[in-house]
Amino acid sequence: MFFVLIMPDLGNALICLFLIFVIIFSSGIKPIAAFLIILASVSAYISLPLILNILPQGFLKHNYQALRLLVFLRPWDYTRGASLQLVHSFYAVAHGGLFGVGLGNSIEKMGYLPEANTDFIMAILVEELGTISLAIIIGILLILIGRIFYLAFQVNDNYQRLVLYGIGSYFFVQALVNLGGIIGSLPMTGVTFPFISYGGSSALISSTAIGIVF
């Protein structure tokens, strides 16, 4: 996780941290310890805006990772710079509404939302096909994740169980971080949406993970 962090790749480092927690919890950690770790994580998320307001603004604006946190806190203050993608993601989601404007009819992907086919592909999907279609895709992904966890409950080998827990959690947190980023609920981290975002390495790793499950 340290080597991923210093690349720098904060998004995937956080995913690695989440997967480490999942494996630790699944290995038989005491419930009170699990509760305290979850409580600390939730408290850190809630207190993040307060912490950012205390830090010097100059440091936040000149540090790449810290600037992402500042954009998360006040996206409308940086609409022509660091939060350009996020703000146009908001526009895309709002424009799509429940049923979308039709396949291929997105306005935001025509140069307004940079790199719309990668991290923010789901914003374009909502704009063209609507929130209903997003809900269907999330439902299909949850069925896949649920099936992986179901298999984990069925196996008797502890190693195989932990591998399945890790893969199911990997898909879950990847989708969560991606969707949280496009609607501004989580800081932007450059994490792809499984099987949909453009990116050969992402598709390869996701497909390999499914192969391991099989």
Automatic annotation (TrEMBL):
Keyword list, A-Z: Cell shape, Glycosyltransferase, Membrane, Peptidoglycan synthesis, Transferase, Transmembrane, Transmembrane helix
Bilayer-spanning residue ranges: 6-25, 32-55, 129-150, 162-183, 195-213
Compartmental location: Membrane
EC number: 2.4.99.28
Group of enzyme by EC: transferase
Catalytic activity: [GlcNAc-(1->4)-Mur2Ac(oyl-L-Ala-gamma-D-Glu-L-Lys-D-Ala-D-Ala)](n)-di-trans,octa-cis-undecaprenyl diphosphate + beta-D-GlcNAc-(1->4)-Mur2Ac(oyl-L-Ala-gamma-D-Glu-L-Lys-D-Ala-D-Ala)-di-trans,octa-cis-undecaprenyl diphosphate = [GlcNAc-(1->4)-Mur2Ac(oyl-L-Ala-gamma-D-Glu-L-Lys-D-Ala-D-Ala)](n+1)-di-trans,octa-cis-undecaprenyl diphosphate + di-trans,octa-cis-undecaprenyl diphosphate + H(+)
Cross-referenced Pfam families: FTSW_RODA_SPOVE
Topology of this chain in the membrane: Multi-pass membrane protein
Entry keyword Glycosyltransferase: yes
Domain of life of the organism encoding this protein: Bacteria
Keyword match Glycosyltransferase: yes
Purpose of the protein: Peptidoglycan polymerase that is essential for cell division.
The family this protein is said to belong to: Belongs to the SEDS family. FtsW subfamily.
Official protein name in the record: Probable peptidoglycan glycosyltransferase FtsW
